[in-house]
Structures are given as C-alpha cells and as structure tokens.
Amino acid sequence: MIGAGLALNYGILKVLQLAHGEYITYGAFAAVGAIVLFPGLPFPIVLLAAFIACALLGAVAQWLIVERAMSYRNEVVAMLVTFGLAVVLRDSLVEVVGADLRGLSVGRLGQANFTIGGLTLGVLPLLSLAIAVASFGLLAFLTFKTRLGRQIRAVSDLPDIAALVGVPVKRIHVIVAALSAGLAAIAGVLLAMRASVSPFSGLDNLLIAFEVVVLGGLGSIRGVLWAGLLLGMTQVVSTWLDSNAGLFYVHLVFFIMLVFRAKTGRLT
Amino acid sequence: MTMALEVKDLIASYGQFHALNGVSMSVPQGETMALVGANGAGKSTFLRILCGLMDSWEGQIAVGGTELARGDPLKSSHLGLALVPEGRMLFGSLTVRENLLIGQTDRDGPWDIDAIERLFPVIKERRNAKPSELSGGQQQMVAIGRALAANPRILLFDEISLGLSPAVVREVYSALAAIRNEGVTLVIVDQDISRVCNVADKVTCFFKGMVTFHGPARGVTADDLHEAYFGGRS
Amino acid sequence: MIRTIEIVALVMGAIIAWLAATYVDSGLQFLLCEVFLLFIMSQMWNLLAGYAGQVSFGQQMFVGLGGYGLCLIANNTGIPVWATIIIVPVIVGLLAIPLGMVVFHLKHAYFAIGMWVAAEVVFQFVVKTPALGGSGGMVLRPGGEMMQGFPEQTVLPVALFLSVALIVGLRVFLRSKLGLATLAVRDNEAAAEAAGVNIWRLHMILFTLTGAGTALAAALYYTTTLFVTPLDAFQAKWVVLMMFIVVVGGLGTLTGPVVGIALFIGIRELMTAAGYSGGQYWIVMGLLSIGVLLFLPQGLWPAFSNYVQSLRGKASS
Lengths: 268, 234, 317
Description:
Low-confidence stretches of chain B: none
Oligomer: heterotrimer
Helix content of chain A: over 70%
Order of helices and strands of chain A: HHHHEEHHHHHHH
Number of domains of chain B: 1
CATH class of chain B: Alpha Beta
Strand content of chain A: under 5%
Strand order of the largest sheet of chain B: 6-7-8-3-9-10
CATH superfamily of chain B: P-loop containing nucleotide triphosphate hydrolases
Strand order of the largest sheet of chain A: 1-2
Largest sheet of chain B: 6 strands, mixed
CATH topology of chain B: Rossmann fold
Number of helices of chain A: 11
C-alpha cells in the first residue's frame, strides 16, 4: 500500500518522488486532524478527506514545482527538488503540530476480533486489507478501463508522441501526482490506525516504499503487492525470532534481493 | 487557394550545427508533397519542428493560416498536424484499438474508427492485440490509423516505407490514395524517391538544410532530382 | 603538475590554520571545525555525484563508520587518537571496496537507494549490537581515559588545512590522467569507454576515496564532540546537508561547495542568533534549494561565473 503511489508516480512521471514519505505522514495527520476537529465524523469520510487533502497537495506541488524541474530533463535535478520539498513539508508539519507522536483512535475497533473455525482474526487488519485491496482494484480499473487510464499509459510509454496525438501531458502529470499522493494518504491513515505516527516518520516510510517498489518492479502493481507481502512477512518473522530486530532484517533482505537481481541481470 | 502549410526562412540548429538553413515552401490544402533528400539533409528536423518536438528554430511557419507554436506538440496537434513517426512509435502498453482511440480528437471528419477499420481490415482483426504482437507492416497500419483518427489537416509521414516489405509498401501506398481523396494534405518522407514522386503533387528536395528543389511533381525528371539530391546546379 | 599559485595557497592555508589554532576562541573554533569538516564531506559527495555521476543517498554510512571506527580503535587499543584518525579512513576505504563491488551492480536511482538501504542496514546493526553501545552510542575514551584538553584546538587547523589541500589536490587530480578520464566519463560514458577508460575501476577508486575522505572528516568531527550515537552518526541529515550544499553551490564544480557551505552555515548562524528554531531553518533551506534548482539548476556558482563572464564580454567588446 505504501509503495503503490510511488510506483505509479515513478512509472509515469519518471521522477523519484522523495516527498512521498511526507505525503504518507500528511495523510495520517490529516485524518488525526479531521477527527480532532469533528469527533463524530464517520471513518469513510475521514479517509476521503485525507485522500483529497493529500491529492490537492500533490497536485499543487507537481504543478508549481516538480513540472518545472522536469522540464530540465535532468533526473538528478528533479529528484533533488522533490527532496527539498520533502524537507519543507516535514519541518512545516513539525512547526504546526509539534514533534509528538499521534495515533488515530479507532475505539473498540482496535481490539475487536472474531473467530472463524478456531482462527481468531482482528477486525482492524482485515479492514486495512480490505481498504488496500479496494484501492488497488479502483486503481486497476482506472488505468485499464477508462480514457484517463489510456492517456496515463500513453504518457508513460512515449510522452512526446502522446502530446502529439493530443494528450494533455502536463495535466496527466498533475493528475498522476495527485493520485499518487492520495494513495500515500490512505496508506498513512492505515498506518495511523495501527500505531502512532511521528511527523518525522516520512523518511522511514519513504525508504520502505522504495523497497517495495524496487522489489516489485517499477510500474507493476501486482509485483508491488507481492513485494509488500514479502517484506511484511520478513518483518513479522524477524520480530518473532528476535524481539530487538527493528527493521534490520527487512532492509537486509531487500538489499540482498536487490543485489542478487542486479547480478543476474533481472533489473532494468 | 488556401495554404495548408506555409514556411518562410526557417533556420534550425542543434547547438553550433545548422540543421536547416533558410527553408521556405508552401503546400496547398489537399495536395501531397514528397520530401526527399539524403540522410542528414534536414527532413527529420523539419518534421520534428512541425510536430513541436524541437524548439530551437527561427522563421515563420503557418498551418492553415495560423502561426505554429514553438516546441509544443499539444498545440501542433490542435492545429491539425498528425505524424506517422519513423519506427511507428506505437504505445506499447495500449492495445491496437486503444492506440486508435487515443488518437481521436474533437476535430470532425470522415475518419471514425469504422472508416479506419475499413481502410485497414487487419486493425479490426487484431483489435485486442498489443503492438509488439504485430508485424512491422501491421504496426505501420496502426500508426497510420492512430494519426488518421485525429482527422488531421496535415498528415506527416516520416520514412514511410523504412523496414517494410515491398508488398506492405504497396498496400500502404494504395491506402494513401484513399486518404488523399478525403482532402487531407500529406507530407511524405521516403527514401524510395520514384515511388513517392509518383503519388505526389509537389516535390521538395533538401540538401544540407537548404531547399534545392521545390516544384510540381509532374514533369520532374530523374536528372532534376538527382542533381538536387546531391546539391543542385549552383 | 602542481602550479605555483597552488603551492602559495597551501602555504597560506597552513599559516591561517596555525593562526586559527592560536588566536581564535574555543566556541568559534568549534563552529569552524564543523564548517570545514562538513565542507570536506560535501566535496566528497560532489566528487562522487558531480564528477563520477553517482548520486548516493547513503554517505551517512561513512560518517557513522568514521565515528564508530574512531571510538572502537581508540578505546580498545593503545593507539593514540591522532594516529587512529589516520587509520580509520584507511579501514573504511578498504571496507568500501567490497561494498562498491556489490552496489556497482546498481545503476542511477537504484544505486542511490541501494546505498541508502546499505547505510540503514549498518545503522540498524549498530543499534542492535550491545558491544557498540546499542542506541546509546559510545563515548570517546582513548585507552580507557577521558580525552584531555581541547581537541578542537588541534582539529581546526587540521580541518582547515585539509580543506585547502583538498581543493588544491582536486585541481591537480582533475589535470591528471585519471582526472581527465573522470571528466571524460562524466561528459560521455560510452565514448570514454570506447577510448579505453575502465569506468568500473575509475568509479571504484573514486568511491573508495570519497568513502575514506568522508570517514576522515567524521573521525575528526567526533574527536571534537567526544561521543558518537547511532541516531546522530547515521542520520540522513548528513547526506541531506552534503546534497544541499553541493547542489545549491554548484554540482560538479570545485568552488560551488564553498559557496554552498558559506550560505548554509551563514544562514543557520543568523537564524539561530535571531531566535528561529531548527525546524524553521530547515524550511528555509528546503525552499532555498527548490528555488535555486528551479531557476538556476546548475547551482549558484556556475550561474554567477557565467554572469561575470558575460559582463566581461560586454566590457571588452
């Protein structure tokens, strides 16, 4: 889930969006803010609000800043601009809300569970999974079944030729940036429901997003799902074996897989 | 007669290198122009400029009486220019049918999907295939179909027969006749000079970024073109 | 070979370094240490990214290795601190070779991320290892004793002289056969390879040297702070600073990082003096970098020197 938006962004825009981790954090904090301001708000509306807020942020950033950086046709310039953006976003957030951890209170839902055939399942993880699958489904529908999706894929293939057949490339870029930031926001809300979120967690999340995307193959949604599952399992298993594991084994597994694939030449 | 394309004193450069050095020409609406010349003569640069894929040029270009914007492919498309690029350049992650659909614009005209499929029946047969599953000739037909779907005022062909078998080239050229009958202006770049001059109303020859021949195709002798191709009589 | 003006610069550097060690007060010395050491690290990142074309997000790994190498060797052996500072970059440089053999399989963005993950792996390993102090870090106790005196008094002249020597050295290097090969690779990789340049070996040399150089600067830095923690030594802040300084100043130029560091430390000191918080400083820095990248994507120094040249051109015509 964390990686999906980033994969979309890199696949289409060919820019490593280093502010992506901040979008995740912003999504989480938008949800927290919405709940604080309007305590009775139903969850789907909170999720939608976080999505829209981040999508707007992503669109504006793309429109005002990243698009211009992309026009230099220099990968490094665009990447560093998004990095500057990430730093500005993170520290602005810290200035506004302080450096404290925030969690999203889900009430009794957090402990709620039910049992099927002796297997106890938490409602919260299932809900997260459902939201993730639904998001992927919508994304796949959008990309493969609509006119917008057709245009997005064309821009991804051959941007110049796409413009020449009348696809508004810049508008597509803004839409993709918005979608990508919006997906990040949903990931952020899901993270905030499970554990507290710090305004400084952007870089960590960004790194995990990178790992999922790189492992899964850039632009491949199914690959991203598998990679997310693999890294998630690594995390669960290593925590079980070694309570002090942190993200050590996750990063290690990723690094080994990355180098292995580079060596065997299966990395483009 | 209205001019589909009018070019005056066009100069284009890549850094220090002048790819085009004072090109002027005009093509009336509905006519077909053959654009010939040796490799590096500036043909591709000329097409790139028309398509808005290059912005370092000086001079005036008008399409249907409207000034062409510099380096903006989207505006070129709005002016009614469409390109069948060298090497086809189909969208690899779109199906054949989607490649046609994405070519469609707001412009009205005779070329809806049905008409294109009648022109190239293979497009209908392979509508759900990906371009990589098609032969070179089939890809070229999809590329032409994609450009036609825009109902363009001017249709540009870059190296129309490059890499195609003689049978496919014949098929493509016979389709050109049908396209021309609908009033589209064609600009065709081809290495096969005699073939392209046979279908053209006008011939333009470039040599080292300059026009060494620009005139009606009828009455042009092989000697005229041969001289122009290698630098003209100057 | 080395030119007269460069020898003069080295001598001047040495004299200023001696003066700084003798006459500058301790607080300012501390600040200047940071300035010059950060400058060295930035120049290292610049060499790797701007000249070798390998943008790395993982240079904080070498900072951390430098800091930990210093504490480990100095604390557990009888080797004096100052000798340790020379040994550490050698060891880190040697460690960089196998790492390079692995990460060089990665290209462009993958390389940048691969380096970042590698740095993160080392960081997590250090946090998990009680012998290295876990997340609490280590205090520098050479031979088991607390450090005596004022290390910054020695580190400052060393760092200052090293900075001058680094610029001179890089100038000489870029004129050398290897340096010309580096520039050739930067301008056109394929052509350079066709001309017989072994790109892999060249990049490996630069990767090792920049790793060692970063570790040297880090070892000096942690000699002045007297302790090292994983959160500080391995934080991405290091590489962020290096990137900002180099990119704002001018990537791939020797003068650019000088401009960059003057700007960054200058603004930081001004803002701190005016009572702004660290977060606000970073916001300004981020905005500044975005602005510079959008309007002068080559960086401030190349833009400035082009401007001066165009003025000269007008004056002479």
